Amino acid sequence: MIPGRCVVDVMRGDVVESSHQVHVAVCHAEEGLVASAGNPAHHSFVRSAIKMFQVLPFVEAGGMGHFQLTSEELALCTASHSGELFHVAAARSILAKAKVGEGALACGPHLPLHEPTAQAMIAAGETPGRIHNNCSGKHAGMIACCVQHQWVTNGYQRPAHPLQQRIRSTLARWMRIDADDMEVGVDGCGLPTFAVALDAVAEGCARFAAVATQDGSGPATIVQAMTSHPEFVAGTNRLDTDLMSMTKGRLFAKVGAEGFYCAGVPTMKLGIALKAEDGAKRAAEPALLAVLHLLDALTTDELSRMAKYAEPEILNTRQEVVGRVRTQLEF
Amino acid sequence: MIPGRCVVDVMRGDVVESSHQVHVAVCHAEEGLVASAGNPAHHSFVRSAIKMFQVLPFVEAGGMGHFQLTSEELALCTASHSGELFHVAAARSILAKAKVGEGALACGPHLPLHEPTAQAMIAAGETPGRIHNNCSGKHAGMIACCVQHQWVTNGYQRPAHPLQQRIRSTLARWMRIDADDMEVGVDGCGLPTFAVALDAVAEGCARFAAVATQDGSGPATIVQAMTSHPEFVAGTNRLDTDLMSMTKGRLFAKVGAEGFYCAGVPTMKLGIALKAEDGAKRAAEPALLAVLHLLDALTTDELSRMAKYAEPEILNTRQEVVGRVRTQLEF
Asked: Is some CB atom of chain B closer than 8 A to the CB atom of A42?
């Protein structure tokens, strides 16, 4: 296979001001790597882009039924949410159903990603709590999983905890790698995160997508929750939410920190993993859309409806359009 | 000359999570290019990194004496300031001395870069004005320059205005390039910005640094203002301020948006221009310090005193150290 390339340029006027290299791997559930750009074996931390795998052990163990969780609450378990009021309420609801207090959350506090919500909190003199962490839904789900299995909740974020061990082996199984080969780092929210080659992540996503076509499977339940309630997966004016709202269940997408993205197209049995080499979100978002379009998973019309993410304008402080972002992609 | 390299890695644990390529040109005032990394002819917008050249026509025309500007106010004219109270007060003072209102500023409003100041404004229900723009000092100086020359102040930010024409020819003269060859873009604050090769910018900085050793020259007045009042050039917990405070007049440094940096070492007649290819400030700052250290413009002890910029720790939301930034530089 001839190596492709994916370059995201930030233009000011007609001049390239800054440039991002993006590595892309696209796998088919049965055929393996079917398309790539840059280095499809690029090795980096998967961060929040694999939250659908992190919640899988909980779903497969019947956690949804055990706690009477709603589909919205499951979507929040896969979220890097914006800390809007409905996100925080759903995270609190999961904890209440598990009969655990907010103090059990291991993630640290930060202001909501949703700017108006953050400013309203500052104006009201409120201090953000752990519940506002963009990962609080995932953490609430993990705590519920511990409660269900009668595992100690204290320290659930530690690599040696049975929950994290189960998540690690789940990831390894879906990505067909040796669990002992995955290098471990500490994620922004305190959980273990793993360094994996993009093509292995893409293969995991492809198999997850393929199994998601089988009603009643864990992946089907998770993908249905994400695509039916995409506002719980990210939030207002966020790519994952707007993309999954538009495509109505045809695909799932999940952002991770430092320019990582995972996506899957169940009916095509395709999985995608990409990473902006320098960690820039402003490169990962247009790259994901360009990849989906080139794979015919998005129509040209749909791509143009996502223009504010695919080809965002650069505004200056005078609100003048002074440039734009463009993506060059070849497989 | 064998091409060198400058790579800034963002490590999570022991794994490289993200990587930045940085292009560097180092020139001597008489000898031209003396060291480089990446592509020393890399072409990009100089943005705010050349503010000392933008204020030079004003200083050389006697603007300081004409308006009885203080050295602190001149430093603010070269600043990308943090919008702290003393910055805003100094910008207002320049405008008052020029007998012009804040409405004359062409830069757009944004919240102060200094987070506590921004949060205090939000908490008090205050809306940011043009005076809070990080470039308001430069703009105030430009307006004063127009008043002095009896040029119309309205539209002073337009490329065809006599002030911008004079700044353009000043830049071209110091950088030894043809003014007509410089591609123009619109900067974040609405002023023209120019796309120039790094080695030309570095040569301009080297000549500026060399002339700054001659007391009474325009560059000497500007460098003395920047290095005597570095808190006016950036602000609290900003690299330019802390670096120039520590080095007590031995060098000047000025950040620009999108990972651009200029610096000069007068006694060594050296000028430095660098650009993180992807526009990342988190790469440009450690790269600048590594370059200054390799040039012996910073001692190892001084580099270690700048560790929070040279090798910053990565904290997660739990305030745990989960990684760090490292720079690999070879000329």
From this structure: no
Do residues A267 and A258 make contact, with C-beta atoms less than 8 angstroms apart?
no
Provide the token pair at B143.
């307006």
- Cα–Cα dist A19/B279, whole Å: 8
Q: Which residues of B touch A189 (CB under 8 A)?
A: 316-318
- The residues in A 8-37 lying below 8 A from B, measured between CB atoms, are 10, 12-20
| Residue carrying the six token digits 């992190």 | A54
To the nearest whole Å, the CA of A255 is away from the closest chain B CA by 15
A186 has which bridge partners?
A: A192
- The beta strand positions in B223-296, using DSSP E, are 252-256, 260-265, 270-276
List the structure tokens of A321: 């359009």
Report in angstroms the alpha-carbon separations of B14 from A44, A260, B7, B321, B325.
Answer: 11, 19, 16, 12, 11
ipTM of the complex: 0.97
Q: Which long-range contacts (CB under 8 A, 24 or more apart) does A118-127 make?
A: A118/A83, A119/B122, A122/B119, A122/B122, A122/B123, A123/B122, A123/B123, A123/B125, A125/B123
- Classify residue A190 as left (phi > 0), alpha (psi -120 to 50) or beta: left
Name the β-bridge partners of B313: B324
Q: Which of A240, A48, A67 is nearest to A133 (CA)?
A: A48
Q: In this structure, what token pair is assigned to residue B321?
A: 């150290």
Mutation for testing the B interface, residue in A317, A321, A324 having most B CBs under 10 Å: A317
Q: What is the pLDDT tens value at each position of chain A, 331 positions in all?
A: 567 999 999 999 999 999 999 999 999 999 999 999 999 999 999 999 999 999 999 999 999 999 999 999 999 999 999 999 999 999 999 999 999 999 999 999 999 999 999 999 999 999 999 999 999 999 999 999 999 999 999 999 999 999 999 999 999 999 999 999 999 999 999 999 999 999 999 999 999 999 999 999 999 999 999 999 999 999 999 999 999 999 999 999 999 999 999 999 999 999 999 999 999 999 999 999 999 999 999 999 999 999 999 999 999 999 999 999 999 999 9
